[in-house]
Amino acid sequence: MVSFMGAFAGFPQLCQSLPLTVLRESRYLLPRRMSESEALETDAKALAGPSLRRETAPFINAVIGQFNVINALILRETRTRFGKHKLGYAWALLEPALMIITFAIMFKVAHRKPADGLNVFGFLVTGIIPYLLFTKSTAQVSQAINGNKGLLFYPQVKPLDVVFARVALEFCTYTAVFFLLMGGNVLVQQKVDIADPMLIVAGFAMASLLGASLGLIFMGLGQLSNVADRTRGPIMRPFFWISGLFFTAHSVPLGYRRFVLHNPVMHVTEAVRAGWFPEYSDQYVNIPLVLTWVLGLLLIGLTLETITRRRIQMS
Amino acid sequence: MIALKNITKVYHTPFGPNVVLDDITITLPTGENIGILGKNGAGKSTLLRIIGGAEMPDLGTVRTDGQISWPIGFSGGFSGSLTGEDNCRFVARIYAQDVDRVTDETRAFAELGDYFYMPIRTYSSGMRARLAFGLSMAIDFSVYLVDEITAVGDTNFKTKCRNAFSERSQRSSLIMVSHSPDTIREYCTRCAVMHRGRLQLFDSVDEAYKVYEAHQAQEAA
After folding, report:
1. Could you tell me how far CA A65 lies from the centroid of its own chain?
2. DSSP-assigned beta bridge partners for residue B147
3. Taking the complete model, does pTM exceed 0.80, yes or no?
């Protein structure tokens, strides 16, 4: 049962074990539930008895077990998130589409044109959808424990499993929304003119990773103090204005451009725009910078998760 | 066998730390049904959650063999916005069981009628108990952790619970938490008493009950 945790070949668990090996080994700082050898011993005993699991290697078992848990969580999350609306999952598509239409109308009414002569629809889609993926991932991950205590009642469900499931669901939803909107655009324009799909995927992956790792920090802080939840809104709000939803890095005056490019979310927008518009260059996209941010945030977030793990109260 | 070693749990309250479990080291045999007596707030449910792995102790280790259930009670384990059926599906999936079989068996046991297809938040506590109990019976555990749940429900449901347990007494056992000695006497052969963060195991329920009574009298005085 214990070996369910930390076996799935995912990066958070891997990263988690890296910096904290010393802490986790220390009986006094963070006493563990069972050592690896004890867990194996128990696994072997459990397998010999009237067990639910088939007789396979413990590691494979753990991988299958964690896969089952994450799969069940994704199905369940889909139900709770979209099941209550009559339109169901279609709402996930309609909500961002409505937002884009609203802004498109505002652009029209104000007689404004996007920077660098880009097409309004594409400009808004490439700005808004990755931004939504980023903020929704943060919001969902930060509530992974408090929004879902009932699930953590089952020993094989750990907060990080919920995090995995939520990140996967957000990523799939917004990627699907994006490609549907892009397909719609292709139908309207009557021509396929996409510069680099891989750059778009990279942008979405970065938005998801940034959102998830920032969310992990809020999740951990949320266990220490309930002030954390209230500060999330004010901290996240500026990203709406500084992440290039309504401007491009190229359109920013030279003196300010490097300040704008300190924001990792700006690089997400730039990547997606360069991937969509053949006429917009990817010269400002700095993927290593974003990944450095992700690693830094993950380090803090997973450390907080490990420290606060024992504070989670079920009732 | 469930071996607890140095289990310590402290809850931090605005009025200072509250030591709920104070360095408990004990081995609970799983060959027989064990009751845990204690007054409200003595830490019985916390202990059960730690044995079941839902919460982690501040200190200490739990070693178990066999498959242990989650603590079966009215609270926890269900999400209110989902239907009884969806909750069954989720639990079947995480325990790698046949989803349809678990759902069918739970529906048959719980006898909720159409409520089975309605959100859990519309359930009464008795209905929740039926669902939780039925669901746990649909999955073969070697130890069932039961938290007060058999105390609710009508006579019919109680009889059903009793029969379900005696049916599987060969392969499964119980650890049951209650503040009612009658319930414990009904199910258990041995009993432990939880008092001031300590757990003491006795060979008979009567013996445990005497100690429990003595504690109660002491508190009252």
Report:
1. 22
2. B177
3. yes
Which candidate, B15, B33, B8, places its Cα nearest to that of B142?
Answer: B33
How many Å is the Cα radius of gyration of chain B?
18
Of A53, A84, A150, the CB nearest to B76: A150
Backbone angles phi, psi at A141, to 5 degrees: -65, -40
Three-state SS at A212: helix
Predicted local confidence at residue A55, as pLDDT: 54
Which B-chain residues 41-100 have CB contacts (< 8 A) with chain A?
45, 49, 52-68, 70-71, 75-82, 86, 89-91, 93-97
In chain B, where are the structural domains located?
Answer: 2-69+142-220, 78-140
| Per-residue model confidence as pLDDT tens digits over A42-85 | 554 444 444 444 455 788 888 888 999 999 999 988 888 777 66
Two tokens, residue A261 = 């490019």
Q: Could you identify the residue written with the tokens 């990140």?
A: A167
Q: Which amino acid is at B200?
A: Q
Provide residues of A within 8 Å CB-CB of chain B. 1-2, 31-34, 38, 42, 45-46, 49-53, 64-65, 68-69, 71-72, 75-76, 79-80, 83-84, 148-157, 309-310, 312-315
Rounded to the nearest 5 percent, the helix, strand and coil shares of chain A are 70, 0, 30
CATH class of B2-69+142-220: alpha beta
B81: chain A residues, CB-CB within 8 Å: 80, 83-84
CB A178 within 8 A of CB A263: no
Burial class (CB in 10 A: 0-12, 13-18, 19+), A22: exposed
Asked whether A165 and A73 are in contact (CB, 8 A), the reply is yes
Confidence of residue A3 (pLDDT cuts 50, 70, 90): very low
What's the pLDDT tens digit per position in A234-260? 999 999 999 999 999 999 999 899 899
Residue A291 CA, distance from chain mean position: 14
CA distance A243 to A120: 17
For A54, which DSSP code?
Answer: -
ipTM value, please give it. Answer: 0.86
The nearest CA of chain A is from the CA of B158 a distance in Å of 24
Chain A closest-CA separation from residue B82 CA (Å): 7
Using CA atoms, how far apart are residues A226 and A169, in angstroms rounded to an integer? 26
| Interface with chain A: mutation pick from B5, B55, B99, B144, highest number of A CBs within 10 Å | B55
For B3-49, what is each residue's pLDDT tens digit? 999 999 998 888 889 899 999 999 998 888 999 998 888 888 899 99
What distance in Å separates residue A301's CA from the closest CA in chain B? 19
| B23, two tokens | 């360095």
- On chain A, the residues whose CB falls within 8 A of the CB of B139 are 52
pLDDT band (50, 70, 90) for residue A14: very low
Per-residue tokens: B194: 């939880």
Instruction: Give the three-state DSSP class for B83.
Output: strand
Q: Measure the CA dihedral B40/B46/B48/B51, to 10°.
A: -160
* Pair of tokens at residue A285: 């996209």
